[in-house]
Design goal:
Blueprint (H helix, E strand, L loop, with lengths): L26 H8 L3 H10 L3 H24 L46 H13 L9 H12 L7 H10 L2 E7 L4 H9 L3 E7 H4 L11 E9 L5 E5 L4 E5 L1 H15 L3 E7 L5 H12 L22
Antiparallel strand pairs: 1-6, 2-3, 2-6, 3-4, 4-5
Helix pairs in contact: 1-2, 4-5, 4-6, 6-10
Length: about 300
């Protein structure tokens, strides 16, 4: 059975169109030049890559080479487990930040021994200076135990006089070498530059940063152990447990006010008692301590503000 189609639906058969790549001679011309048949030349031309084909082939080769390079870079070394941490990516393999914690409270100094009772600032000062200059650190008891023992042995529990503090210092391997009823800045600076320290009796309201204006404090023991970059004295206060910076005039005023309000005050330069017995250091220091009077140095705040924090 045959079907006749209208002429408008008939598709004429087109002859093959030969396309010669740019820059190449036609098959006929090439055949004449090299002495080959036209079919051989056509086959050779069709097997030759065009510039576009050559570029595509080059890109494909480069892509394959790059893929292999990255594969080699991230491939585990021989014998390394696949889950080795060196191949982890993301947060799991990121360096971990150190944990925050264990810091001292702002304003606190770990070397400041805070008094544990209303009146035991003297024994706190003795142990602090004994730790710095004497033999306190070699003693097995805790700081609190040393303070209690010193207070029980040398005082009546109502505070610490200059003579009693000198005896405490001798017990802790330190000794009083110079004294003054005022703040002698020249002597103090010379002692500090040579590694010495000072125990100073002041009116507590002047050095206490929490005291209100015009407030009257108590005779109180603090230590001076250095100066900051502004020339202020670094005062360790056992009442607050803090290390505060006090300028020379303010510290001198604190000593003067202690005399005015409490009939005692001044400074004692303290150094190591190495080479001297406790009895010898106590006798020599006691003779010098009379310059500060015989007033008991106690705390600057109510007992409720003190905690048994010293160790």
């Amino acid at each position: 059975m045959s079907v006749s189609l209208p002429s408008n639906l008939l598709r004429s058969i087109l002859s093959r169109v030969e396309v010669t790549p740019p820059g190449q001679p036609s098959p006929e011309a090439a055949a004449q030049q090299v002495g080959l048949s036209q079919d051989q030349v056509v086959a050779g031309v069709e097997s030759t890559a065009t510039p576009v084909q050559a570029e595509q082939a080059t890109d494909a080769f480069a892509a394959e080479a790059l893929t292999q390079t990255w594969a080699n870079r991230f491939q585990p070394a021989a014998g390394a487990p696949l889950d080795d941490s060196s191949f982890r990516v993301g947060l799991a393999g990121a360096p971990q930040a150190p944990e925050i914690g264990g810091w001292d409270d702002v304003g606190k100094d770990p070397d400041v021994i805070q008094q544990t009772k209303e009146n035991n600032c003297g024994s706190a000062v003795a142990v602090m200076l004994g730790n710095e200059l004497g033999t306190s650190k070699t003693q097995p008891e805790s700081n609190t135990q040393k303070m209690d023992a010193l207070e029980s042995r040398f005082t009546d529990g109502k505070g610490t006089t200059p003579h009693e503090l000198s005896n405490m210092l001798a017990n802790q391997g330190a000794k009083v070498t110079q004294t003054s009823s005022t703040l002698d800045k020249g002597v103090l600076d010379q002692a500090l530059s040579g590694g010495g320290k000072a125990a100073v009796m002041v009116d507590s309201s002047v050095v206490d940063p929490t005291a209100k204006g015009g407030e009257t404090g108590r005779a109180h023991w603090v230590t001076v152990e250095g100066k900051d970059d502004q020339g202020r004295y670094l005062v360790k206060d056992p009442s607050t447990g803090k290390n505060v910076a006090v300028d020379a005039d303010k510290l001198a005023n604190a000593v003067d006010k202690s005399w005015e309000q409490h009939q005692g005050g001044g400074m004692m330069i303290v150094e190591s008692a190495q080479g001297a017995s406790e009895a010898q250091a106590a006798q020599e220091g006691g003779e010098k301590a009379v310059a500060l009077g015989n007033t008991d140095g106690g705390g600057s705040r109510a007992m409720g503000n003190f905690g048994r924090e010293s160790s």
